[in-house]
């Protein structure tokens, strides 16, 4: 219940995820995440373009060709900054693909760094899964360190959490305990779709 309240997913979401499906509500959430990424990148790129235009306008206004060199340098830097961040942006947008949903189950541990809560799920493999959230409530108290959880997420440089449950959670309201559904015992990271 704490997970559902903290991350705003429903019983229908977790049940669908256990069956390898994503609900319409989760698809809306993914679309919202994509729109927010596009908006952020558009504002960032627009600010860079406006910076270039402003410096060219200032150099023209001042007259003479000596004013163009700083504008050209700033324009090149702004262009390089946009080029540097574009691949990261593209990877994050591509990662927000519902058909790439993964699951992981294992003991969790968490740490806080730079106002971010990093949650590690030790799935018994060589690396496990690392999720990150803002270091604020309700995220900080949603997971009990040392307990086993099953989570569903979209992979990426910053994985997108979709739903999850404690492995030992008692069957209630359609969320089964361990072994009730074939997906409930997943111990390794595995694609579901």
Task: Provide a brief overview of the structure.
The protein has helices spanning 2-7, 11-18, 24-62, 68-95; strands at residues 102-113, 116-122, 129-134, 148-154, 160-166, 190-191.
Q: How is this structure best described in words?
A:
- It is a single chain.
- This protein is α+β, with helices and mostly antiparallel strands.
- 42% of the residues lie in helices and 21% in strands.
- It is built from four helices and six strands.
- It has helices at residues 2-7, 11-18, 24-62, 68-95, and strands spanning 102-113, 116-122, 129-134, 148-154, 160-166, 190-191.
- Strands 1, 2, 3, 4, 5 and 6 form a six-stranded antiparallel sheet that branches.
- A hairpin with a 6-residue loop joins strand 2 (116-122) and strand 3.
Order of helices and strands: HHHHEEEEEE
Query: Radius of gyration, Cα only, in angstroms?
Result: 22 Å
Please, how many helices? 4
Helix content: 40-55%
Basic shape: elongated
What is the number of E strands? Answer: 6
Mind describing the biggest β-sheet?
6 strands, antiparallel
Report strand %.
Answer: 15-25%
Mean pLDDT: 79
């Amino acid at each position: 219940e704490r997970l559902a309240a903290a991350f705003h997913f429903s019983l229908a979401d977790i049940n669908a995820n256990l069956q390898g499906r994503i609900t319409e509500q989760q698809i809306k959430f993914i679309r919202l995440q994509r729109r927010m990424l596009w908006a952020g990148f558009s504002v960032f790129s627009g600010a860079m373009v406006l910076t270039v235009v402003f410096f060219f306008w200032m150099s023209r206004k001042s007259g003479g060709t000596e004013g163009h060199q700083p504008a050209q340098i700033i324009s090149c830097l702004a262009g390089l900054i946009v080029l540097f961040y574009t691949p990261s942006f593209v990877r994050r947008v591509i990662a927000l693909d519902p058909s790439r949903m993964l699951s992981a189950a294992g003991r969790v541990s968490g740490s806080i760094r730079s106002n971010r809560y990093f949650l590690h799920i030790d799935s018994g493999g060589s690396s496990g899964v690392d999720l990150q959230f803002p270091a604020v409530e309700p995220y900080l108290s949603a997971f009990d360190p040392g307990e086993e959880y099953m989570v569903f997420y979209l992979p990426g440089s910053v994985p997108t959490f979709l739903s999850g449950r404690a492995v030992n959670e008692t069957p209630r309201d359609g969320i089964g305990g361990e072994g009730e559904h074939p997906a409930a015992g997943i111990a390794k990271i595995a694609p579901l779709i």
